[in-house]
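User: I'm writing a tutorial on reading structure tokens. Could you give me a worked example: one chain, its sequence, then its tokens, then a sentence or two explaining what the tokens reveal?
Assistant: Sure. Here is the example chain.
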Amino acid sequence: MFQRTLMASTLMLASLAVNADELVIAARDSSYGDAMQYVVDQYEKAHPDTSITLVKRPSKGLYESVVLSMREKTGHYDVILMDDTWAPEFFANQWLSPLSDAVADPDFVQAPFNIGRYPDAKGPIYALPMVGNVAMFAWNRALFEKNHLSQPQSWSEVLAAAKTISQSADVKGLVFRGVKGNPIVTGFLPILWGYGANVVDSSGKASLDSPQAKQALETFLAMKQYAPRGVEVYNADEVRDALQKGSVSMAIEVWPAWVPNLDNASVSNVVGDMEIMAPPAEVGQPSPMLGIWQLAIPADAKHKSQAEAFLRFATSADIQKDLALHYGIPPTRTSAYFDKDVVAKYRWYPQQAAALKTGKARPRIQNWAEVESVLGDFLQMAMMGQMSAEQALKQAQRRIERMIKG
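And here are its predicted structure tokens:
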């Protein structure tokens, strides 16, 4: 199957080589693709001498296509849109071209900007943040006030509030995604980080077998008793529906694309009631999970100067504001988050900016996708009661150690 995908990608890449003077951009499809098409159209209006070909692909196909091109040094792409979890692989293989210092701008929120640097936050810039996705925490202020509760500041307070609110027959305390793999891991990471633990330590070694990680997972597992029945197979749609119906008081993980309809009276029973904030922390400051999409230039690109000009345009304050207003794309610039037009449409954007500021990237290891899959399997087994928190973490630790060493 993968070979057929590579053959198809090779044919597509060959077809792109027809016009050597074109700026060729590889991007996501769906809403991200629509947003990028808008950017391309605006850029061509401002630069009528520039011709751009935009290639849109699903996430997996995009990854395979750009990896094939950069690994084989075909030079077919001048600009690529990439998930920040791909960056460690691309950096380590020297597949990206460093950008000039001119791209740095203090208006960028620094946490998402710095993950485009290598080998650390002080290194050269290789990618610019295009989409400021960050995991947030949602809570129903009206339900909290009804139960004489304050905004939760720690995961212990989240559990206590969930217990109190769940005593009502028609409302559950909280909701989360329990599907194995990426969904359950994404929900768990801010809790894990909020207890001062991590999947891997600063040296890249597996670090799940710790008292802090055990406490974090026990807290996560305890949440199930205050969640809707069947939460262990919930995904994004079920979380959104439960929030909009007002049948739950909190969601431990929501993303910017999930929340606009909370204030839409045609589909929501909680208009004006829901608050969005950075997730709580048991120790230290909140650690919201970043889900940044970045723009970068392959090392073998044929039109690097024109490509960098496009990157600067696409991530400019004006374009970031337009993408937020018209496509719901979360910005990566501070000014866009506090723009009066943007805040009028998305009242929680200042809180989202605060979360982005303290946001944390997923572990910067090359095989994160495989590690995430393994961790997700063990988390769900623990959530289903098939093993204890300690057993799940110890087995995940052993598996991940082998994967990292391999």
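What the tokens reveal: Confidence is low (pLDDT under 50) at residues 1-8, 13-20. Residues 1 and 7 are 10 Å apart (CA to CA).
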